[in-house]
Design goal:
By secondary structure, the protein is an all-alpha fold. The protein is 78% helix and 0% strand. Helix 2 runs antiparallel to helix 3.
């Protein structure tokens, strides 16, 4: 009798588990089909509540967290993916990038303050622990794939932010020599350019920064001094007069945009007769 009860209970548990797994996959697929970020996150979250081992759902949800600047949540999801897939090079690399971004500071105000302070030589990373964790993750990637240039490129920037200049130059140079994807190579040139600028090696700085801009002129993921470097590079190459005219043109465009926005009024609500 007891055996029958145990067998029945085991069967019911297995059936329920299978049903939950199937429901989780269905919710995951709904998330893939949705075009709205908040709905995608909601579907992936519900799927994970039913099946916490669905690595694909973590990977999809974490993409939204990363671009929404929800870096702590992104790091948690990447950590869970690594627990489920310990040899996932991509998970280590992306968690390292999230930690690197967290070490830079979050949000527009933090970005502006950091740019100003770093350019003046006064700033420090907001979260050294995040940068150290980023280095650990990039090192794990290199152990799994020693020829992945992106890992060296991003680890170089983490080293630079921690003041480990020799290590940063070494990793940047390695990334450039490996000739990985265009974006990470541009990042490596920009990191090394900033180091040369700080060291007063202007010719090397100009050469590296020019190369980084040629490879990827519109990347939002450059090291934090990319904006002032771009300004300085423009002054050095185009001349102060040209940069001044470009600045004036930008102000004019912003002024007209503001005037246009202010002239747009909501239609007045008419009282019904």
């Amino acid at each position: 009798m007891n055996r029958i009860v145990v067998a029945t209970l085991a069967y019911l548990c297995l059936t329920a588990t299978a049903a939950w797994a199937q429901d989780a996959v269905e919710l995951y697929n709904r998330g893939l089909r949705s075009s709205l970020a908040y709905k995608r996150i909601a579907y992936f979250t519900k799927a994970l509540q039913l099946n916490p081992n669905l690595a694909d759902a973590y990977e999809k949800r974490v993409t939204h967290y990363y671009f929404q600047e929800k870096l702590d949540k992104a790091i948690q999801d990447y950590t869970r993916v690594i627990e489920l897939e310990p040899d996932s090079v991509n998970a280590y690399l992306l968690r390292g990038l999230a930690c690197l971004k967290k070490g830079h500071g979050e949000g527009l105000i933090a970005e502006i303050n950091r740019l100003a302070l770093r350019y003046a030589g006064l700033g420090k990373p907001e979260d050294n622990k995040a940068l150290e964790r980023a280095i650990d993750d990039f090192s794990s990637v290199i152990e799994l794939d020693p020829r992945l240039a992106a890992a060296y490129s991003y680890r170089a920037e983490a080293y630079r932010l921690l003041g480990m200049i020799d290590e940063a130059v070494r990793d940047s140079s390695t990334a450039i020599q490996l000739r990985g994807d265009q974006k990470s190579t541009a990042y490596a040139y920009a990191t090394r350019a900033e180091i040369y600028r700080r060291l007063g090696q202007n010719e090397l700085y100009k050469a590296d920064f020019r190369k980084s801009v040629e490879l990827d002129p519109y990347s939002p993921d450059y090291p934090p001094l990319h904006v002032p470097l771009m300004l300085r590079y423009s002054v050095n190459t185009a001349g102060l007069k040209t940069v001044s005219w470009l600045g004036l043109l930008g102000i004019i465009i912003l002024t007209f945009a503001l005037i246009f926005k202010l002239t747009l009024r909501a239609p007045e609500k008419r009282d019904s007769d």
